[in-house]
Design goal:
about 500 residues; 21 strands; three-stranded antiparallel β-sheet; disordered C terminus; alpha+beta; 17 helices; Herpes Virus-1
Length: about 500
């Protein structure tokens, strides 16, 4: 049975105002987000916005930013949160009277869903016990239960992660940085070359993906065998790329071989990203039909410090866009561009690429820059940890994590991320989505929540700053009023 709110219509018990769609003011029903700005609405509500707008798309009702039909995507993280709150706060056993009026049938909400898991090239069902075991394995890497559950669920959808490592001549520049352990259980930045930063990133992700059970491939940009425009030439393992796969033997031996191989590579040459993407496409081509049939995704992480170049050395922006489009047409593809430079021109170019290709493309800076960008966007409540950076670099489908450094999060977005970071145990119940009750629950949970290393402050801190979270979540807070003023100014400038 549901309660009725005089202003918002039917409301799921316990759902709370944070789970209300901004358009219909009822609990989200099949939430979808707009990939350009990240704002979320019920599927039927956003379809109404599309039909009322231009045939090519419409404008976001919240920020008035234009969107195209292919940018309307399911918000899986929010969908799971709504379902979890329904299971927990609604009556766990609903007694239904049969037509005879003499017996009751007990209907119970499911406690876990099944998913898919890779086993070689075969995808098989995963039961509840296996799913929980996978989450516990991810938690051992230092992730809280909520975030670990998200990562485990996403990994079941990922057939492979491919890291394209830029070793062009410019990666010799000594403005790179690596986070290393310091005396007193602290951490500190160590200056290094950009290539050394890229090697450190590759090894960290190789370790994580071994634990995840996701095959990872590390492709060298300049391996000495690049043949511009040559069709059908497969890359050579051990020379042009290196595989790390838990199903292929000792993980420790594979990591040692990868570290040795990367250590022997010297930065040189141009930045032929488009050409190397073509070679990756040729290698993936035989697998495309099988991956699509199983509904699996390939995550491509381009780790670079420079502008993409062609065979003569000029900037090759158009070919890069075409290669990404072709890859996206051939298979389900999620792209991350991990920048290892502070050059604004490089970031601007990849932002243009993001606007031109019709696929999911996230741009991530180094973790220190990301921590500062999160604060500059107004998201002060978050302690930005190395583990959070690794999740984002590895390609997450959770749009809220992608938005951390782009804009001030909406209350539901801040609440969703906070639940991921603060709920420690797998059996911990979801927090109430009534704003005040939510903040009280977070404050209580933080008392037993382990600290994380915040690369923004360079201190061990709680994963969430509760005072700042209250400003972000509670209605009529100063932060929300300032955000509303900014939206009104933007809306006026568009009209």
């Amino acid at each position: 049975m549901t309660e009725t709110d005089s202003l918002s219509g039917p409301v799921t018990p316990g759902a709370g105002a944070l789970l209300h769609c901004p358009i219909c003011l009822s609990t989200f029903n099949d939430p979808y987000l707009l990939g350009e700005c990240g704002h979320t609405f019920c599927k039927t509500c956003i379809e109404g916005v599309q039909s009322a707008g231009q045939r090519a798309g419409g404008r976001c009702p919240t920020c008035r930013r234009a969107f195209r039909p292919h940018q309307v995507l399911p918000n899986f993280a929010l969908r799971e949160l709504v379902a979890e709150n329904q299971r927990h706060f609604a009556t766990m056993a609903i007694h239904v009277t049969t037509p005879s009026g003499t017996t009751d049938e007990c209907i119970r909400f499911p406690t876990a869903s099944t998913g898919l898991r890779r086993q070689g090239s075969i995808v098989r069902k995963v039961d509840s016990a296996d799913a929980m075991a996978e989450v516990e394995k991810v938690m051992k890497l230092g992730l809280p239960a909520g975030l670990a559950k998200l990562v485990a669920e996403e990994n079941r959808q990922i057939a492979q992660r491919i890291f394209l490592l830029d070793n062009s001549g410019s990666t010799q520049a000594r403005d790179g940085k690596i986070l290393v352990e310091a005396p007193g259980q602290s951490m500190q930045w160590q200056r290094c070359t950009r290539w050394e930063e890229i090697k450190d990133l590759a090894l960290n992700h190789a370790r994580w993906n071994l634990e995840f059970g996701v095959p990872s491939e590390f492709v060298i940009l300049n391996s000495g065998t690049t043949s511009w425009g040559q069709v059908g030439n497969e890359m050579e393992e051990g020379l042009e790329y290196f595989m790390v796969d838990a199903a292929s033997g000792s993980g420790k031996e594979q990591l040692n071989k990868l570290e040795e191989a990367l250590g022997a590579i010297k930065p040189r040459g141009l930045t032929p990203i488009a050409e190397r993407l073509r070679r990756i496409r040729e290698q993936l081509r035989p697998k495309c039909r099988e991956l699509l049939a199983h509904g699996q995704t390939v995550v491509l992480v381009i780790v670079t410090d420079g502008l993409p170049t062609g065979p003569t050395g000029g900037i090759d922006h158009r070919q890069l866009v075409e290669e990404l489009r072709t890859l996206g047409n051939d298979l389900s593809l999620h792209v991350v561009v991990r920048l290892c430079t502070d050059d604004d021109a490089v970031a601007d170019l990849y932002n243009r690429v993001d606007g031109e290709v019709e696929l999911q493309l996230d741009i991530v800076d180094d973790m220190r820059a990301e921590a500062h960008e999160c604060r500059n966007a107004g998201n002060y409540f978050l302690a930005y940890s190395p583990e959070l950076q690794l999740v984002r670099e590895g390609g997450t489908f959770c749009k809220e994590l992608d938005l951390l450094d782009e804009r001030l999060l909406e209350p539901i977005e801040a609440a969703l991320i906070s639940q991921m970071l603060v709920r420690v145990g797998l059996d911990a119940p979801p927090f109430s989505m009534e704003p005040k009750e939510f903040c009280i629950a977070v404050r209580e949970a933080l008392q037993s929540c382990p600290n994380v290393f915040d690369v923004g402050t360079m201190r061990w801190e709680a994963p969430v700053r509760i005072d700042d979270l209250e400003w972000a979540v509670l209605p009529m807070s100063k932060t929300r009023r300032e955000c509303g003023n900014m939206m009104r100014v933007e809306a006026c400038s568009i009209m």
